[in-house]
Amino acid sequence: MDRRDVLLAAGAAALPSAPALRVALPATWGPPFVMADGGPGPAGILPDLMHLLGLEMGVPVEWVRLPAMRAVTAMEAGEVDLQCPMHPDWWGSPVSAGRWSAPILTLRDVLVAAPDGPTHWPVKPVPSHPWRVGTVHGYLYPALKSEFVSGRMIRDDAPDQAAVLAKLARSRVPVGVVNEYALHAFNRERARHEGLRLLRVVSEVETRCLLAPQPRHEPRLILEALDRLRQSGRLKAVLDKYRRS
Prior knowledge:
This protein is an alpha/beta fold. It has helices at residues 45-57, 71-76, 88-91, 145-150, 161-169, 180-188, 219-232, 234-244; strands at residues 4-7, 21-26, 35-36, 42-43, 61-66, 82-86, 105-113, 131-136, 153-158, 175-179, 197-211.
């Protein structure tokens, strides 16, 4: 059974019968997107953003923790109401345009070098000496697809981004792909000379929220609440907090 956390948004107490907004929380997200803080639920960028959404809608937020490969099944089976952040290229199959929110978060995947890895990029990997690249199991990397297909790069999967960063720190892979926020959070915990080096931006995407085919709450209400948060600057304020920390 999937582990679930319920965060009661302020104002939801006035609506005790309001069903919770069920948000998918794939296990692949790590700091600073999802962190344990010793409280009743998760902390980090994603919980903070969804807590704001719950407040805006006046409903509780229920986190549904899922293995990465279960997210699609859970969404289509109606076990969750939405997943954020998401991008059409990551989902792997087309869905109705009406299930996508407006952009909420710009994410950059970056190529990172191990301490003894390359000092610059591009280098020219060849099929006889391919580069092993730290990647996350179940993640799609459209910008690197041709490199993987040609054999110039070989995926070296880890369960989540934190594990990719740990591999890089121990030089178990020469390079890896992680989110820019995750890299900055990792480096903040280390002395300057122990930080991992960013080689280049691999991709930059405007991510959105994806609604289930039949969410518990009317899709229009969810999408309008997200849009109000975006236009008011409240979503940006959350992101700015993590950029400064």
